[in-house]
Write a structure and sequence with these properties.
Subcellular location: Cytoplasm
Mean pLDDT: 88
Family: Belongs to the RRF family.
Shape: elongated
Organism: Koribacter versatilis (strain Ellin345)
Structural class: alpha+beta
Keywords: Cytoplasm, Protein biosynthesis
Strand content: 5-15%
Protein name: Ribosome-recycling factor
Amino acid sequence: MAQISMAAVPALKDQFGQLKTRMEKAVDDFRKELSATRTGRASVHMLDTVQAEYYGSMMPLNQVATITVPEPQLILVTPFDPSALGAIEKAIRSGDLGMNPMNDGKIIRIPVPPLTEDRRKEMVKHLHKALEEHRTAIRNIRRDGNDFIKKTLKDKKITEDEERGTMEHLQKLTDDEIKKMEEMCKTKEKEVMTV
C-alpha cells in the first residue's frame, strides 16, 4: 500500500499542518536544549535556560542582561539595570549548571571550569534523557494524529485506503523527526565527550 500524504486528503489537510508544526516545535525545543548544554568551551547559550526575577516576574537572562564570551573559559553577564545584579547572580547559582558566578558590583564573571570525565558522562546522560522526552512528545503527537484519522474514518469522511496510507505517512514523518533529533544528539554527545 502506497503512502498517502495527509495534506493530499482534504478532510485531513488542516490537521496535518497542525501535527507537522507541533513536531517541528518539539524538534526545535530539543535543539534549544542542546545548545544550552555545556561543552568544554564557554557559550552564551549555556545560560539560555536561566531565568532571573526582575520586577516581580521571571525573565530569560538574555532579556535583563548582555551576555558575552570574551575568552573560551569565561562568560560575562552585564545587567541592563545594575539593581538586578543580585537576582541575576542568584538565578545563575540556582540554575543547576555547576557554575560559580563572581559579582564585582557591575558585572558577573562566570568562569567555565573544564569538564571532568564524570561530569561529561553526566551531561551525556542528560542529553539522552532529553532526547527520550522529546521522542515521547513526538510519539504523542503521532498518536493524536492517528486518533484524528480514525475518527475521520468513523465519520466516513475518508476511505479505509486513505486511512491506511495517511497513517503510514504520519509514521514516516514521525520517524524522520525522531531521526533528526537522534543525529543532533549524536553530534552534541561527540562535542561533549571531546576533551
